[in-house]
Give the backbone structure.
Amino acid sequence: MERLTSKQLRQVSEFLRQLYQLRTHEEFTSHLIAALPTITEGEFTSYNEYPADGKAIVYKSDQLPYCPDPSHYATVLQTHLQEHPVVTHWRTTQEESAQIISDFVQPSQFRATTLYNEFYKPLKMSYLLFMGLKADNKRLLSISRHRHDREFRESDKTVFNAIRPHLQQALKNALTVTHLHDQLAAMDLAMEAGHRAMLSVSADGRIHVAAPYAHALLAQYGMGLKHGADWLPPVLRAWLRRQIRHLTTTDDVAPSIAPLTVTGQAGTLTIRLIPKGSQYLLTLKEDRSPTPPNLRHLGVSARETEILGWVVQGKTNPEIGIILGISRRTVQKHLERIYLKLGVENRHAAISLALSSMPGGA
């Protein structure tokens, strides 16, 4: 096995650092194809997964424009695959070390095969660096680098062998992340239908998992997260710390956990804390206020019809002030102007007039 140079070791180290970033399966395969050229020579890369459960083979490549008709060449490869010395060896032995074609046959012998003349030669990729490995009990995968002008070096095989166990682990990570994403998406759809959302956080307020709808609800109630942020907003972090301190008090009776209630224009957001070992679940539930009726036909302004609509819904001045983000004194001044425009003296008379003017009113 050829030893790697200092430059190659640095390249492999950076490759592995990037490889272990958490990605979905789709993101992982795309990243791998883009990253392999940084540590190996060649014109293009191909990636294949072979699920044991009979599902479709996953095939990816950056070979365009090298391959003008992928479906045609895929058929040629499948038809003459038994002539491929590297793939045949791998399928027979499942040996996971990196291989090149000349490890098994002389170049002249390989060039005499139909596979070479109908597949490799037209695509101008006479040389192949191949590695097959077992990802888990449910799938095999193979990775290849291709080039036209000369054979791959021993150092390229050394690089492939060095990254093999890391590729296996990174793929397992990607499959786990994909499974979690799928579960979260299903959970989010179900919870969104009930105006609910969920976050999983640590005791210090770091977010580990958050349903997309949770982000939307927090933003709607003035606690939006910055793009890429993985911490709860300050007000929510402070509330979390208080709740955790309350939970750890040494009383004989288990302490109750009070929810956090936030009122906004659309309704009320209730946040509850559920301890789960070293992690904490935050459930967010929105209770939406009914939409106030449109009463502009009574000759009042847009803001006045908004306030009168909430009055008709039975809201008090302080409640209307919270919903609209104004003081209750401002609400009262708007109401006084509304009374003058409607020719009424008080709240009850304004409600009666508004109701009688609505479709179906008395």
User: Anything to note?
Assistant: The first strand starts at residue 44 and ends at 51.
